[in-house]
From TrEMBL:
Region (Disordered): 417-445
GO function term, MF aspect, one: 5'-3' DNA helicase activity
Biased composition (Basic and acidic residues): 432-445
Claim: Protein biosynthesis is one of the keywords in the record: no
Keyword Nucleotide-binding: yes
Entry keyword set: ATP-binding, Helicase, Hydrolase, Nucleotide-binding
InterPro entries, per the entry: HerA-like (IPR008571), HerA_central (IPR002789), P-loop_NTPase (IPR027417)
Organism of provenance: Methanosarcina siciliae C2J
Protein name from the UniProt record: Bipolar DNA helicase
Domain Helicase HerA central: 48-265
Substrates-to-products reaction catalysed: Couples ATP hydrolysis with the unwinding of duplex DNA by translocating in the 3'-5' direction; ATP + H2O = ADP + phosphate + H(+)
Family membership noted in the UniProt record: Belongs to the HerA family.
Length: 445
C-alpha cells in the first residue's frame, strides 16, 4: 500500500491494464499522457495495481542501483512509454538519451526474447522508431557493423578558450594555455564559425608565443580533429530532435570524459535556452499577443552514467548547466532530466536533493545508501536501508520516492518491449543455445 498524503486511486480509462491507477508526479492528471512503469510489489512479492508516471509536466528523475539490477532497463522503459504516447501528446515532446555505453541503438528492434513474459503483462514486443547519432568521424565504423547511424558534431565555436583547456587538460596559466585561450577568444570575437585550420593559422600568427609552444598547440588541435566530434558548423538542434522523435546520441566511442561532458554541456544549455524562448512565446500567446519564433518541443533528456557529468567533489564541464539550469530551473520552461548511476555516492549531492522522483533499484554499498539517506525526506517513515531490505534482491524491483505526492512505493518495473542492449554477457549463452537446439531435436524424435 502506498504511503504519504496522496492516497487517491483512479480507474483506468483506455489503459493497458485493468484495475486501479496510480499516477506519480502529478495528482491532477486525468488519465492522459501516462508512462506505464510497472506494478506495485506486495510484501509477498506478488503483483499489485499498475503504477504510472505523469508525462504532461516536466520532471527531474534520478535512477540508481548496483550494476545489473535495472537502471538502463528502466530508462529504456521510460523511453518506450514516451514513444508510444498518443500522437497529440507525443508530438509536443522530444526524447534524447546520452548513451555512454553504446547499448540503446537496439531499441529499434522488438524484444522477441521475452515474448512470454511480456504476454503475462498484457504487452507485446515492439521496436521504437529511433534515430541514432554518433560522432561524425565514427559513422563508417558503425555502418560496417550494419548499424544505421547519423553523424553528430559540435561546432568548434561552441567551446570557449577556457573550455578547450579543460578538454585538453592544459593549465590556463601555462604558456600553452595562454596561447590557446588568446587564439580561441580572438576567433570568437570575429563572430563567425571557424575550422581547425583557421585555429592553427591564428596560432602561427601569434607574435607573443615561441615556436615550440605554437607547435604543441598545433599538435593538440590536429589530435582533436581526429576525434571526429567537432566541425565548423556542427549539427543543428532541428537535425537532432523534434516533436515526437526518440534520439540516441551514442558517445561511447569518445574515451575522453571531458569531451563527453563538453558535448552534454553544450546540448543541455541549448535545450534550456530554446525551452526558455518557447515558454516566453507560450506566455505571450496566452496573453493574446502574437508569438515570435518557431515552436520547440518539451525535452526529456536522459543521461546514463550520470556520475561522469555531475561528479561529487569537483566540477565537470557539464556540472553547471545540468545542476543550475536543468535540475534547479529546467522544469519551469519544460525541460525534464533523467539521470542514471550505479554510484550515488559519486554524484554531486544536489542531484539527489533536487530530483522530484527517485527510482532506486538494489544497492548494497553503505556509501551509496548513505548518499541517498542524506537527503531522505521527512515523509519516509523508515530509513532507505530498511525499505531496500524489504524490497529484496529481485532484479527489476524498485523503490520509488515521489516528492510531488510525498509518497513511497515499492514497484516491479515492467518488461521492455524493445530489445535491451545492456544485459551482461555470459560464457554459458552459446552452450545454452546449443543445448536447447539438441533438446528440440530429441523431442522431435
Amino acid at each position: 500500500m502506498p504511503e504519504g498524503k496522496n492516497k487517491k486511486f483512479r480507474p483506468v480509462f483506455g489503459g493497458r491494464l485493468s484495475g486501479t491507477l496510480r499516477v506519480l508526479g502529478n495528482e491532477e492528471n486525468n488519465g492522459e499522457g501516462l508512462l506505464f512503469l510497472g506494478n506495485y510489489m506486495a510484501l509477498d512479492h506478488s503483483r499489485g495495481a499498475a503504477v504510472y508516471l505523469d508525462a504532461l509536466k516536466p520532471h527531474a528523475v534520478l535512477i540508481c542501483g548496483k550494476r545489473g539490477y535495472g537502471k538502463s532497463y528502466t530508462m529504456g522503459c521510460m523511453l518506450e512509454e514516451l514513444a508510444f504516447l498518443h500522437p497529440a501528446i507525443k508530438g509536443k515532446l522530444a526524447s534524447l538519451i546520452i548513451d555512454t555505453m553504446g547499448i540503446f541503438w537496439t531499441m529499434s528492434y522488438p524484444n522477441a526474447s521475452e515474448t512470454g513474459r511480456l504476454k503475462n503483462w498484457g504487452l507485446a514486443p515492439k521496436g521504437l522508431e529511433t534515430e541514432v547519432f554518433v560522432p561524425a568521424g565514427k559513422v563508417e565504423a558503425y555502418r560496417k557493423r550494419n548499424i544505421e547511424v547519423k553523424p553528430f558534431s559540435i561546432s568548434i565555436r561552441d567551446l570557449s578558450g577556457s573550455q578547450w583547456c579543460r578538454v585538453l587538460k592544459i593549465e590556463e596559466v601555462s604558456p600553452l594555455g595562454i596561447l590557446l585561450v588568446r587564439t580561441i577568444e580572438s576567433l570568437r570575437e570575429k563572430g563567425h564559425h571557424y575550422s581547425f585550420e583557421d585555429i592553427i593559422s591564428e596560432i602561427f600568427l601569434d607574435t607573443r608565443s615561441d615556436p615550440t609552444t605554437k607547435g604543441a598547440a598545433e599538435n593538440y588541435f590536429r589530435a582533436v580533429k581526429a576525434w571526429g566530434l567537432f566541425s565548423k558548423e556542427g549539427t543543428s538542434l532541428s537535425e537532432l530532435i523534434s516533436g515526437g522523435r526518440t534520439t540516441v546520441l551514442d558517445v561511447s566511442p569518445l574515451e575522453n570524459e571531458n569531451v563527453c561532458a563538453a558535448a552534454v554541456s553544450i546540448l543541455a544549455g541549448r535545450f534550456y535556452a530554446e525551452r526558455l524562448e518557447a515558454r516566453r512565446a507560450y506566455e505571450k500567446k496566452q496573453m493574446g499577443e502574437k508569438p515570435e519564433g518557431k515552436e520547440f518541443p518539451m525535452v526529456w533528456l536522459f543521461i546514463d552514467e550520470a556520475h561522469i557529468f555531475v561528479p561529487a567533489g569537483r566540477e565537470s564541464l557539464a556540472s553547471e548547466v545540468l545542476i543550475n539550469r536543468c535540475l534547479r530551473q529546467g522544469r519551469q520552461p519544460g525541460l525534464s532530466l533523467v539521470l542514471a548511476t550505479q554510484r550515488p555516492a559519486s554524484l554531486q549531492p544536489d542531484v539527489v536533493s533536487q530530483s522530484d522522483l527517485l527510482i532506486c533499484h538494489r544497492l548494497t554499498s553503505s556509501d551509496d545508501i548513505l548518499a541517498l539517506e542524506s537527503s531522505r525526506p521527512l515523509y519516509m517513515q523508515e530509513s532507505l536501508r530498511t525499505y531496500l531490505k524489504k524490497m529484496g534482491s529481485e532484479k527489476g524491483a524498485a523503490l520509488i520516492v515521489d516528492d510531488h505526492s510525498e509518497s513511497v512505493h515499492m514497484v516491479r518495473i515492467r518488461p521492455r518491449r524493445s530489445w535491451h542492449g545492456g544485459g551482461e554477457p555470459s560464457a554459458l549463452e552459446p552452450y545454452a543455445e546449443e543445448r536447447n537446439e539438441e533438446m528440440t531435436v530429441q523431442r522431435s524424435k
